[in-house]
Structures
1.
Amino acid sequence: MYSFMGGGLFCAIVGNILLVVSTATDYWMQYRLSGAFAHQGLWRYCMSGKCYMQTDSIAVVLYPLLWTSNTLASLSTCHLAYWNATRAFMILSAMSCFAGIIAGILSFAHFSAFERFNRSFAAGIMFFVSTLFVLLAMAIYTGVTVNFLGKRFGDWRFSWSYILGWVALLMTFFAGIFYMCAYRMHECRRVAGPR
């Protein structure tokens, strides 16, 4: 049981670090714009050595052929909502993973006050919730990038921050699996009783 919890805790800590690094860095996508390389993350984009905050004004750079301000405003709002949804799900994922780590650490201790509340089960659920949130964030980013932004840039690719997000998804998923296995072992021992 403790080996499963230790493995799950290791996966969760690595996954949480990867979530924070992936969310904070600027290399989710790299592309060539006007002959120069550019890259962007969830918070800012960088072109020609200068970085700018990721706001709705980026739509003016990405969609210069649109003439009406209504169309531009609606695309800017859609573009901003996509950034905000991805950011929110990544932050929620890191927070739920951190809560799972706390519950996972507490599951090593045996308090009689928490006899009815199984902390390894709670930690496993928190890691699965974290996995769901990071999956939603990555799916939103991937869908919009491939179907909307990727068509605007001929030479583009996903970069290392994006890949770290997918690796964090796997780590939080395996942390949840490990903690659920620890819970099942604990339940089997509890039902069997002392011999």
Note: The first helix runs from residue 2 to 24.
2.
Amino acid sequence: MAHPQRPLSTRPLDLLYFVFLLIHFPATLAIDLQPLYPPHLVPSPIRALLSFYLNTSNDPLLQGAMNGGPEWAWIRSFFFLEAVGQLPMFVLGARGLYRDSPRIYLPLLIYATSSATTTIACIATVLSLPSHASPAPGELALSTQQRAMLLASYVPFLLVPLGMAIDMAGRVGGLVCRGLAANAKGKEGKKE
């Protein structure tokens, strides 16, 4: 039996996830993945955007990834995971949600779990750094305003995927239960 497509506007959580995935796509390409790009391939306006962000926020994660020290290999590995695992899901997930396809639930569960897990590590790093009223650029310390800005940037990228993971786990569980029930019913019909 085919799954009838419901308009995205009638599915508020799917609409939230859809918009989140579409917003996350350009942000990932322009900001998060810059540490992975050869510098000569990054257009100067995009480099300027990252520079402005780093000067304003003093984001230790992006600075560490850009500087390439071995102590920041973990964040570069997260960006690599974002490039090969999450970036394709922004497109596939948005497409599947738009089409109201239950087949996207499991991939979105995997994406959301991965995204929430990596973002928790980033938030923990931001929270663990010392506070200074006016840290020097590149210093591993944050002002109160910088910490608030970073948390305002990172927390939504934890909460939406965390909610998505819980929601998609429930949806996948529902599909499994319906499939098992249909399988059991089919076996009963064969016995008769």
Note: The mean pLDDT is 92.
3.
Amino acid sequence: MTAASRFKESTKRMVMSCCALGCTNRKIPGSSTKFYRFPSDRSHMMLWISALRYRDFGPDYTYRLCSEHFISGKS
């Protein structure tokens, strides 16, 4: 098994949770809570980070925010 395939398998088993400070939401089958990746567009990403009031935060593709942190429930 290659390193890339081992990494892919390990990420399948990871629990998806919200990265917002104090939020304990996790992805649960059947739940209406959605999880969103940070935008790849740098300016859009910076808006999300500033709304979270984080300093020196550089999310990667594994970080998610749940729908409870959006006014409409959508990103």
Note: The chain is about 30% helix and 10% strand.
